[in-house]
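ok so for the tutorial part 2 we go from a plain amino acid sequence to predicted structure tokens. step 1 is just haveing the sequence, like this:
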Amino acid sequence: MPDYKAPLRDTRFLIDDVFDFHASYAALGASDATPDMVAAILEEGAKFCEQVLAPLNRSGDEQECQFNNGEVTTPKGFKEAFAQYVDGGWNGLAADPAYGGQGLPHSLGLLISEMVGASNTSWGMYPGLTHGAMSAIHAHGSETQKQTYLTPLTEGRWTGTMCLTEAHCGTDLGLIKTRAVPQADGSYAISGSKIFISAGDHDMSENIVHLVLAKLPDAPAGTKGISLFIVPKFLPNAEGHAGARNAVSCGSIEHKMGIKASATCVINFDSASGYLIGEANKGLNCMFTMMNHARLGTGMQGLCLGEASFQGALKYANERLQMRALSGPKAPEKAADPIIVHPDVRRMLLTMKAFNEGNRALAYFTAQLLDQAHRSDSAEQRDEAENLLAFLTPICKAFMTETGLEVTNQGMQVLGGHGYIREWGMEQLVRDCRIALIYEGTNGIQALDLLGRKVLGSQGKLLRGFSKIVHKFCEAQVEHPQLKEHVAQLAVLNKQWGELTQKIGMAALQNPDEVGAASMDYLMYSGYVTLAYFWLRMAVVAQQQLEAGAGEAAFYQAKLATCAFYFKRLLPRTAAHLAAAEAGSECMMSLPAEHFGL
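step 2 — the prediction. this is what the tokens look like for a chain of 598 residues:
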């Protein structure tokens, strides 16, 4: 298994030099998040992930979760690692102090989540789902519900899930059959079965709090009739601890391609006691708080697994000897040259590096927006942050996971045959990453959300909010001595982005299928342009640091070289996505379903 090392130098470059998190924290009143405090948290978080979680990654994959007599057991060491995580205060890092949290910015919690996911994605699912449940209860729960559930969730004594999917329906939640019948005491009897529930049952906490979508007896049809309920595995007692067992059970766990140490459960509710969150029939609005949290976290998984894969591939490429460089021996004292000298290996490594570091910049930018949306005193700044988050969330989820899978595949390829062998750990990263393109809304659904709901649905407002940022940046850097060629390239694509949107929108007025036909290519085009913007932001700062003699010249030169690779070798992919998005729906929809084959 590749040895994981937290990329703290790259993290510091982004939060200190590119995005200036510290000035943002000060402006938002996050006085506890001083530079020294942030540095200490990152250092300690890195130690925990490198020394505790990473060593459990391969063993967890091999042992998997076990299901016996209705109970789920996590792999050896998982429970103990979670206890260390809780004792270290990591679970409540960004949680509300009113319920035992430390109240630090959400962005700081996301930086720790990145290291957790890169060191052990399966393990990270357990606290990750809990943070989403805490967000939903905090945003929509009654004061009694907050008092009852948020403190034990923050403390890590309890964990949380979200229960959406049923066997007969996935994304189309309007078809759910789970029912909630009102009871005399104000609770509801929840009956139904949910599948694919991550962290749905395990042995790491004393209680599990399920957030369950269900329908009331008189609910309207479709998604307008969905309500959200808290359904704990054990009912809270008067002392705030897990009391009597609720009528909630795990029916089975799935045997999966990857993330095998994360329990993916069938959860059955047999007239279980549940408690309504928010208004009746408004459950989907409440659940979106949790789903958007999960979608950003899922996008991060593409980055996390890509980073782990890059570290393994880079180490191997520097050590593996094979053939001589075409331009002559680079290590004449050795029997052959290390494979990093070969152009094709460099193509793979630079592709991995460019996507990882670009995606990290995108993730940190969205993390900063989360802080602004939650903490800013300015309603205008909060609205702007919310609009940018709405636009960028489907790009984060889909583009970062699509490219994350490409990166892990490239990492396996760098190792050749050894990459395909289990003991090297590279194939596990591919398997673990593959689900990220599917869950929390498949990437096709994210593409529809981006183009249909966010862009066209806002009459282009959300796109303009971001493209205006890109436009102003290009105007400011148009004469940059070293980067003006790339700036001009980005400016052309940014303008083309709006033209493509308008063209699809006009076509969709005649045929709604045009949106679905263009959406995935539109999303990928959007992702490549978005990363180009962040790569140029990083390159401008790197050039400034070099000219200022800030030291670590090799680090900044690597940024500039990787930026050039991205613009010359990866950004041209936009041309293919543009052509495909403009091709229309006829070639896709004209073939009758019965003529596909079989």
